[in-house]
Design goal:
By secondary structure, the protein is an alpha+beta fold. The protein has 2 domains: about 80 residues; about 190 residues, no CATH class. It is about 40% helix and about 10% strand. It has a 3-stranded antiparallel sheet, with helices on one face. A two-stranded antiparallel sheet has the order 1-2. The chain has a two-stranded antiparallel ribbon with strand order 6-7.
Length: about 280
């Protein structure tokens, strides 16, 4: 084998390295090895620097995304509006005074309760707000509590709207129909069964009819939460949305005061604890 190769240099015997034979021009094999080591160092450390730069840029991007959010305005599901019900300091003093004045007694028997003792459901023949306006009470409350309301011709029946449910903090659509109307129910803030056990038996039939249709005691809510509540008082049940607890208890106290109802001791204690946080 010739000591010369096709790169114009020669090969040392017993060696796999090549020399150009021009060491005096600065292209010696020693310089080549130093240059190779230097280039290898740069490649290794350059790769590390690149990785660190990419990680840093990703971190900055994540921070900007978290602060600014996805603002491209396309796609996705809009976040549900959560209604807020800030405690009312104006009503707190009045509620505390009324709570102190409400009598505390044991419950009357439950077995004698019947829904018919509060008259026809959603009667307009009442002496409270919206009474004798020609519309049923359920639609009066839907009209009051929903937003973006669409009415049927005639002006009484709510066809559709949006409910910001104060009990749950959720937002839901209401569409009138045989399979959808019941998704929004009208809750008696002081339940009829609870009222019956705590003084309503002593009311006149007209007073009970007024009580069942009084807008102060009515709230449009999701069916599920209304069914969960049933006839429980404040010592047994409160709305899942804690932001509404103060208003809820204040309204119960207002209604029980207006209709001369009473409380159990556990109910009064629970109301006092809630008002202490308002």
């Amino acid at each position: 084998m010739s000591p010369y190769d096709n790169r114009g240099g020669y090969r040392r015997r017993g060696s796999s390295s090549y020399s150009s034979g021009y060491s005096h021009s600065g292209y010696s094999s020693g310089y080549h090895h130093r240059y190779s080591r230097h280039w290898s160092f740069l490649r290794r450390h350059g790769l590390v620097a690149t990785i660190l730069l990419v990680v840093a840029l990703m971190g900055v991007g994540l921070i900007l995304w978290a602060v600014l959010g996805d603002d491209d305005g396309a796609g996705g599901t809009p976040a549900a509006t959560t209604p807020s019900a800030a405690p009312s300091t104006t009503n707190r003093a009045q509620a505390l005074a009324q709570l102190a004045a409400l009598p505390v007694r044991n419950q009357d028997p439950w077995e004698t309760y019947d829904r018919t003792q509060f008259g026809d459901p959603w009667s307009d023949d009442v002496d409270v707000q919206y009474g004798h306006n020609g519309c049923n009470t359920r639609d009066d409350i839907l009209h009051r509590d929903l937003v973006n309301v669409v009415m049927r011709s005639g002006g009484c029946f709510v066809s559709s709207g949006i409910l910001h449910d104060q009990y749950t903090g959720n937002t839901m659509n209401f569409v009138r129909g045989p399979n959808t109307s019941d998704e929004v129910e009208i809750d008696h803030i002081v339940p009829l069964g609870d009222a019956w056990r705590k003084g309503a038996q002593e009311l006149t039939p007209q007073e009970r009819l007024n009580f069942a249709n009084d807008p102060r005691n009515l709230q449009a809510v999701a069916q599920s939460v209304n069914q969960d509540k049933q006839s429980m008082d404040a010592s047994e049940w409160l709305p899942p949305n804690q932001a509404y607890h103060c208003t809820y208890v204040e309204r119960q106290i207002e209604v029980k005061t207006a209709y001369r109802l009473w409380l159990t001791q556990s109910e009064k204690d629970a109301m006092g604890r809630i008002l202490a946080t308002c």
